[in-house]
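Protein data:
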Amino acid sequence: MSETNTAAAAETAAPHRYTAAMAADIEARWQDFWDADGTYAAPNPTGDLAGDPQVAARPKKFIMDMFPYPSGAGLHVGHPLGYIATDVYARHQRMTGHNVLHTLGFDAFGLPAEQYAVQTGTHPRISTESNMENMKAQLRRLGLGHDKRRSFATIDPEYYKWTQWIFLQIFNSWYDTDAHRARPIAELVAAFEDGSREVPGGREWTALSAFERAEVLGQYRLAYASDAPVNWCPGLGTVLANEEVTADGRSERGNFPVFKAKLRQWNMRITAYADRLLDDLDGLDWPEAIKLQQRNWIGRSEGARVDFKVTDTDAITVFTTRQDTLFGATYMVLAPEHELVDTIVPAAWPEGTHSVWTGGHATPAEAVAKYRAFAAAKSDVERQADAKEKTGVFTGAFATNPVSGEKVPVFIADYVLMGYGTGAIMAVPAHDTRDFAFARAFELPMRCVVQPDDDRGTDPSTWDEAFASYEAKLVNSANDEISLDGLGVVEAKARMTDWLTERGIGEGTVNFRLRDWLFSRQRYWGEPFPIVYDEDGVAHSLPESMLPLELPEVDDYSPRTFDSDDADTSPETPLSRNEDWVNVELDLGDGVKKYRRETNTMPNWAGSCWYELRYLDPHNSDKLVDPAIEQYWMGPREGMPTGGVDLYVGGAEHAVLHLLYARFWSKVLFDLGHISSAEPFHKLYNQGMIQAFVYRDSRGFPVPATEVEERDGKFFFEGEPVKRELGKMGKSLKNAVTPDEICTEYGADTLRLYEMAMGPLDVSRPWDTRAVVGQYRLLQRLWRNIVDEATGEVTVTDTEPDEATLRALHKAIDGAGGDLAGLRFNTAIAKITELNNHLTKTGGPLSRIVAEQLVLLIAPLAPHIAEELWRKLGHSGSVVHRDFPVADPAYVVDEAVTCVVQIKGKVKARLEVPPGISDDELEKLALADEAVVAALAGAGIRKVIVRAPKLVNIVPA
């Protein structure tokens, strides 16, 4: 008989068997029911989404997935891993008495939609909305229990109205270092006006022009525009934040070269919050690896600021963590981009300039210009690489070492970056590897100021490498006013810092690796800045009444892109070509005037910096969020000192970018009194990745994985051998499996179970379509244990279950319940499978008590089949808000445990004892056992080691 005929015969004999077709019918019906019933609607304590006060009074649980981007390719089975996990957890939390907020929106601004629009002429909104509808349908099919009333997309004007509003809060704020918080910029202006705070430069506030006042305030604002070195990507036609540049100096998106350029751009003063961003990590329930990445990115280091005078009016300021080695500083290096370079370069080389220092150039200006062009073509990573050849050029200027009085030459070199410290270093070549190599290359002097702990001596000219140590003593470090000789590093640093501070040529300070966040993009598909410029170039914020400033329609979405290797280019934005939108007449409170709009847009990170707040109060058009609602869902409470989302699940790849930016925005909003939570996400969980096998032909190109044949452990495509490797799943690698395929073949509940059963949630695991059938069979056995496959009738009875079944049931409840609460879904499924197998083996109809508990037990994991069986068992409504089963402790504990009794490490007896027996009771039983007494044969006992209830080890005298 053929397979088709066999299947047809089986279906005829068992017309009510759980099949993919039945699963599809069940799942579609219950998804419709949930939507119509509003099953997953989470009530707020107040406002539009307020519900039954008794429901809202339940303990809350706010569960979030990281914001998805609606890709045109749709989902593959790797994408829903985190979504299914949070759904299972949310369902379990509802069944354990919590008011659960779980929803999902879309992070829909960004480069992919814009690039698609450029290629096809389709407006990015049209393609993005189409992608969202496709993704919503895929997610719905998985049975995800989202509160759909709360969903939104960042491209909705009613959403980005508040993104713009938050930008203006940041723009109109400054960080008060005395109060350690943000304050409204109006309070700073008032302090300048009444003289309680000195205006930089010493002039009266009233004497400053509007442009001068704007320039002063720009030094304080938390969002400010400045001319600064930026990461310019000609291939994308936009500038990028440091975090968007890969380790090899290319754009994270598109893999184009990135160059340093100087442009006027918007920045966020995230550095003002560096200490708080570090300190508050301690109170967060995050993976230590993620905390470490943030700490390293922020990069706090303690040291000293030191001024090296170049002229009577100019000084080079350096930050150093080794101020104790100042006496060993024999030259200085500036970053090629350092603004002081243009000021200190003389017209001609000083008399006696070493020929190695000039690079063969006729004048210092020529040498500097050539070297700057050379350095601009290299990425920061390339510049910091330990290259064998050290490059640089003498500026022609000298600075004065403040402790020795010695004139030291000032170089520019690519290994010094503007992105760290002050963009200048004092070089102590005897005790720094890079400085040592540079000094050798340029024949610069070296002075030993830290006593080596080997036999190399104190003449660096004889050394093969630098000597660096925090343990050694200082030498050759004294002048008429201070001596560090003989001191350890820690004491020497403290003494030098005090000396510098007393003389006003330095001070102890803290430095951070973190740079201010570049917030401009030369793109179309992003939030417009709510900023206009008057005829003097002064920036003005739009009033709230003019928000949202909607993104205008344009004919050409393309930013001007260039040859990706052409560094001598600059941005041109799509919005700048829309003259009618750019040039406007507005009344901002002092009459109608002409203004010019900002034509950059916000980066794609803007919308995801605050989306957790919009989930709370999504239809509020008057406030960012109702304070009572925000306090209820995210306010601080016991164990959560800074508040935040209860569980946030997503990929570890967002360790710095998104998470750091969102934390910064939360802290500003907290300081200004708009929210009660100083942190956005209290608990963070990083799910692993679902990987898939990639098959490559002899050219290294991927071939369709579904068409590869395996023969004798080898793999073939169209008869030709191919190589197999484990990698990411994706369309480009031709190994993607869509959730739709699996749902069609097995049902959504099977897909949910398989993804959760593959292994621990935080570990990556390979996809194997052939293994999916295991979870499909679990559901078939579950169905068969309750429903007669021939008649469709429920087969349960009202009899009491036997003790063995009760023990199996309650152990499963106890174990699976704890596993679900702890995100250990694979082990929860294993325990449910063990129980179901026990029930299958016992044969005969199940007790109703057992059947109902079994259905409730699997409901978070396989909600559709659970709903159907619950209804078949005679219940109305949904299982979603039913109580999760509670284990009876009497049945969880084993009746007896086997205890092994050893003498000299050899087993002499086995005792059946109660699992709760004490050490003393177990010792007495073991020593009284006949076999033990006989084995001891009257010998004395030196020691008895008891590990109740499973081991007694007796050591004879």
